[in-house]
Amino acid sequence: MIRNAIAAIALFVTLSLPTFAQQKTGVLFTIDDEPVYADEFLAIYRKNKEIGQQLDPKSPQEYLQMYIDFKLKVKEARTQGLDTLESFKNEFNNYRASLARPYFIDNTVKEALVNEAYNRMLKDVRAGHIMLELPQNPGPSDTLRVYNEILKIRQDILSGKITFEEAARKFSKDTYSANNGGDLGFFTVFNMVYPFETAAYNTPVGELSMPIRTQFGYHLVKKYEERPARGQVEVAHIMVGVPPNADSATVFEAEKKIFEIFEKIKSFEPFDALARQYSDDKSSARNGGKLPPFGINVMVKEFEEKAFSLTIPSTYTEPFRTPYGFHIIQLIKRYPIPQFEEARAELEAKVQRDGRGNLSREAVLQKLKEEYNYQEYPKNINAIAKYLKPAYLKNEWTPENYEKKMKKPVFTFAGKSFTQADLIDFMLLNQAQDAKSETLEREVWKNFHRFVETYILSYEDSRLEEKYPDFRYLVNEYRDGILLFEIMEREVWGKALKDTTGLRDFFEKHRQFYQWNERMQATIVKVTTDQTANQVERELKRKTPVDTIANRFNRVNPLEITVEKGPFEKGTNEIADIVWGRKGLYRMPDKQDGRTVFVLIEGYIPPGPKKLEETRGLVITDYQNHLEKEWLSSLRTKYTVTVHQEVFDTISREL
Q1: Which of 14, 150, 161, 485 could form a Cys-Cys staple with 156, CB 3.0–4.6 A?
Q2: How far is CA 526 from the centre of its chain?
Q3: Strands, E, within 98-170: which ranges?
Q4: Among residues 228, 250, 265, which one ends one of the domains?
Q5: Is 617 inside any structural domain?
Q6: Among 623, 564, 635, which residue's Cα sits nearest to residue 598?
Q7: What is the pLDDT at residue 55?
């Protein structure tokens, strides 16, 4: 029996991992008897083959030696315990979780939801509803009771005993819509919770749905109208505010002011200027009254209707009133519903955030239940509610010896049986922090569903490497890549930067590789306008310092003159290469990027050795390569590498 559900899941994951290696065949090479398999090498080789052939072609034998070097570095990283560091574990676990996420999404369901959302996006519907509340985390008896109540209301409406509107006012727990006879007005996709939205779109106009379950309770939905979607509109407005409960004199003054502004608009005074000057909506006034584009059910009803009544940009409404005051709206732009591919990315994001995103996850969960022969035992689950004490709901229940009494199974999955005691273990783990239901029955069923989902998804997560080779390759690649970076930072990159003595010694021993070619000592001056260019040429001939000239002209236009000073090594500067061999002041006959170019050539510096400071970046790179080569040599001495040549010869035919 599993005494701790969460610990059991973690234990199962840990114990399952070694089976992955046991199922592989074809050991390509070993490092101290630790196997590296041919399929892993092939996966990496094929993935990088095209890029490698373009940048630095390697034969299979050369690539094998590179792969051995790579694995030696990873082996050393593990030997040094880098895979036990919390920083590594956190980074790797985050990577793996992101790689695993797509395996818990049913793409068929996801694509269907996205297409469904777009089709609904094309229409607005007007519907009303009657809602009866369900308790939080209801048990089967609660659910059945409320369902029967709302079914009775539906039958009474259909038989003519009561109208829908009367029933809404009498029975609906949504008091906002009940006052309107249940009428919710027009709405579109994503405005309502998904099950309600589905009922509204799927119910024919004029008809009443069957009871619909949402997280709020059970609903009856009556569909009144359907129309082409309005899309979005972008407008500017001017508002003269009216406080709540304002007296008639205040309303009169506000109305008088808005009509005075209206007369100015009709006299062709700019709408944006009037908004900045007079609008009481200060957040939009500073932008000339502009509001962000909006669709239906964003603004108050009166404002929405007036905004969507405009069809021609720059036209405007007459003054009208909302609960906030008096307004005038000017149309900026209408936005029709976009084409599917244009809307796809936004729809996918909304589907994932919306409750319907869980349908994909639930589809995966259902497939796993079928794949692993899931079975649950409701009677045994309900028996737990009778065994628990009311103190549990107050976080005060501490049972004893329940594992001996509660032995019956609550569900079986993948050949394992989970007992009543296992579910109680799970509930006790969550007892303190969990929001409690109203009854023990609801609490047991809530925890049961959570326990089943947690275990099944964790079980599947633990088997991803075994079931999906591509996932295993990618996870291994990420894990080894993180370890490689850390060990290279320790043994090569960081060491080269910190070991200043070793860097200088390396530089002194290899000075012959760090030499200057012949260099030109020169200053390149680029001038934007022809008039300035003539003045600059006169100043240069008078030997006026270049910086003095540039400072003078750049006071007016900072980009008038740019200056670039040498020395320039041949082949490193296009302009210097063109004038190579000349001396003195030279004005190039052709402009460069529309600018006149002067080159003031002072002389040439013969070839000679570089100082460390002049080539530090290159020396550091070479020193890192040197350290890596020495380090790899020591690793090949430290660890025994054995290549299984017959396996390599076999896979070479596939490369």
Answers
A1: 161
A2: 46
A3: 123-133
A4: 228
A5: no
A6: 564
A7: 55
Cα angle 120, 126, 128 (rounded to 5 degrees) comes to: 120
Name 383's Cβ contacts closer than 8 Å, sequence gap at least 6: 406, 408, 420
State the DSSP string of 326-369.
EEEEEEEEEEPPPPHHHHHHHHHHHHHHSTTHHHHHHHHHHHHH
Residue 105 lies in a domain: no
For residue 260, what is the domain's CATH number?
A: 3.10.50.40
Helix (H, G, I), strand (E, B) or coil at 482: helix
The C-alpha angle with vertex 305 and arms to 303 and 306, in degrees rounded to 5, equals: 65
Residue 130 lies in a domain: yes
Of 416, 476, 337, 452, the closest CA to residue 41 belongs to 476
35 in the same domain as 50: yes
pLDDT attached to residue 85:
95
Q: Give strand pairing partners of 601.
A: 522, 584
Identity of residue 290: K
Inter-residue long-range contacts of 158-163, CB under 8 Å, 24+ positions, other chains counted:
158/208
Q: What is the pLDDT of residues 381-392, one digit of tens each?
A: 999 988 888 888
Question: The tokens of 293 are what?
Answer: 């584009």
Name the DSSP letter for residue 491: I
Per the structure block, which two tokens stand in for 488?
Answer: 């290279």
- Tell whether 219 and 312 lie within a shared domain: no
User: Which residue type is seen at 527?
Assistant: V
Amino acid at 357: G
DSSP E strands in 541-632: the ranges are 561-565, 568-569, 584-587, 596-605, 608-609
pTM: 0.62
Is residue 186 located within the same domain as residue 238?
no
Domain range for 600 is 515-612
Clarify whether residues 533 and 607 are in a common domain: yes
Contact, 243 vs 253, CB < 8 A? Answer: no
pLDDT at site 21: 37
- Judged by DSSP in three states, 181 sits in coil
Q: How far apart are CA 414 and CA 410, in angstroms?
A: 14
Distance of CA 544 to the CA centre of its chain: 58
| HSE of 87, CA atoms in CB hemisphere, 13 A | 6
User: What residues contact residue 35 under an 8 Å CB cut-off, 6+ apart?
Assistant: 21, 27, 29
Residue type, 109: V
State the Cα–Cα distance between residues 48 and 51, nearest whole angstrom. Answer: 5
Length of the chain: 655
Q: Is 144 part of any domain? A: yes
User: Are the C-beta atoms of residues 314 and 291 closer than 8 Å to each other?
Assistant: no
Residues 127 and 219 in one domain: yes
Residues in the chain where the model's pLDDT stays below 70: 1-25, 50-56, 136-137, 139, 431-438
| Contact by Cβ (8 Å): 117, 351 | yes
The total number of structural domains that make up the chain: 5
Q: What are the backbone angles phi and psi of residue 480, rounded to the nearest 5°?
A: -65, -35
In this structure, what token pair is assigned to residue 472?
Answer: 């295993």
525: how many CB neighbours lie within 10 A of its CB? Answer: 24
d(CA 87, CA 90): 5
Contact 392, 398 (CB under 8 A): no
Q: What is the pLDDT of residue 437?
A: 66
Q: What is the greatest pairwise CA distance in the chain?
A: 108
Are 421 and 436 members of one domain?
yes
Q: What is the pLDDT of residue 4?
A: 38
pLDDT of residue 331: 97
Do residues 441 and 483 share a domain? no
Q: Is the dihedral of CA 120, 121, 126, 132 positive or negative?
A: positive
Q: Are 292 and 315 part of one and the same domain? A: yes
